[in-house]
Write a structure and sequence with these properties.
This protein is mainly alpha-helical and about 120 residues long. The chain has a domain of about 70 residues. It is about 65% helix and about 5% strand. The chain has a two-stranded antiparallel sheet. A hairpin with a 3-residue loop joins strand 1 and strand 2. One of its GO terms (biological process) is mitochondrial respiratory chain complex IV assembly.
Length: about 120
Amino acid sequence: MAAAPEPGEPGKGKREGLPFKLLGILDVANISCARDSVLYGSLGSVVAGLGHFLLTSRIRRSCDAGVGGFILVTLGCWFHCRYNYAKQRIQERIAREGIKNKILYESTHLDPDRKQTNSDSSN
């Protein structure tokens, strides 16, 4: 008989395998930046719609402002997050190549650190 999984154990919960799809097409759990963008967009729509309603008391225009706020905030968060994600991937690739070159050229005549130490000791 299997023991009950701990609440904090990853991969053992009932809902772990169920994807959350927004509008049936956008899998929010597996697409990076999608969850935060949708959450911030919904908050932006509430703020924009409620703020517009408090200023003008026009219901239809306030709903339009809420939808516009959702679109603007979601797209803004999406592009900002994807830009930072791409920048981080480029930095990781550069660091990985640097480490690979360091391992490859270590203790050879092509090692730049070895050339500096040899030239310092000969002077």
